[in-house]
Amino acid sequence: MKSQLSKIHIFYHPTNVQAVVWDKRIRIRIKKYNPEIKFNADSPEVVIVLGGDGTILEAARKFHGLGAVILGLNLGSVGFLASVRKEKDFLKALEKFLKGRYEIMDRMMLSIQVRRKEEVVFTAEALNEIVLKNPLGIVELEAEVSGHPVQHIRGTGILVSTATGSTAYNLSAHGPIIMPDIKCFILTELLDHNIPSPSVVVKHDNTIVVKVISYRETGIISLSKNNKKVDILLIADGDSIFPLKKNDEVVIKNSPHMVKFAELEKHYFFKSLEEKFGFK
């Protein structure tokens, strides 16, 4: 059976020696058995990602607007986002994929705006999470869900993640693990000095607003791009960084864009949990 695909892109960091080797192997395999497939980075139907979860996140953000399917081959340590976790299974899995024997899992993204004096000063999208934090001090934040206050935090900050991101920073912050095909937000406080409150799981059609109430200005931290002194940071997927000020409002919604992940076996998520945590 020949593949119906016509354009594929292989995405990785050139400094990853293993990825460079696998890039050559995959190209040889495709050229030999599926010569009708072309390698195209501009408008790929499928992006084969060689690397860890960070590289897969980067590829998802870069190519999701094209509607490309992400096929992640794990060369990192965790591999929660990968379609295949072990190198010994890469070529077998690739053959299965090219024969169309896979399912597509749509995963939601976060759409983020920062409003400052009624003006939008920053926008971003994130697949895993958005974090508002004071890395070296205390910030007072108030989180609302569709106009209803749900958390008042006086501590390090707050994390708003998707179900996909539930196994990332959210898990480290003792938030719940959610199946990645569930469309929801998870609000998890970070080191609150008040009485700790549990994470709140919110349906995807709500709007979350986090307000920066107060913090002590120290200017200890500076951004390397412009050497600007900052205290409160917004970080989306560990990549997009924006400095926040008092009275800023961060508006978080379900993005209209979805990320398509290739799933080659049923119950793959639970198998990932079993391997990661030793569930029996």
Could you give the topology of this structure?
Layout: E1 7-11, H1 17-33, E2 38-39, E3 46-51, H2 53-63, E4 69-74, H3 90-98, E5 103-116, E6 119-126, E7 129-133, E8 139-145, E9 148-161, H4 169-172, E10 184-192, E11 200-203, E12 208-215, E13 221-222, E14 229-230, E15 232-236, E16 240-244, E17 249-263, H5 268-277
Parallel strand pairs: 1-2, 1-3, 3-4, 4-17
Antiparallel strand pairs: 5-6, 5-17, 7-9, 7-15, 8-9, 8-12, 9-10, 10-11, 12-17, 13-14, 15-16
Order of helices and strands: EHEEHEHEEEEEHEEEEEEEEH
Strand-residue fraction? 35-45%
Q: What global shape is seen?
A: elongated
- Tally of extended strands? 17
The stretches of 5 or more residues where confidence is low (pLDDT under 50) are none
- Rg value: 20 Å
How confident overall, as mean pLDDT?
92
The CATH topology of the largest domain is Tumour Suppressor Smad4
Helix content: 10-25%
Please describe the biggest sheet, giving its number of strands, its sense, and whether it closes into a barrel: 15 strands, mixed
How many domains, as an integer?
2
Instruction: Tell me the CATH architecture of the largest domain.
Output: Sandwich
At the first level of CATH, the class of the largest domain is: Mainly Beta
User: Helical region count?
Assistant: 5
- N-C termini distance: 37 Å
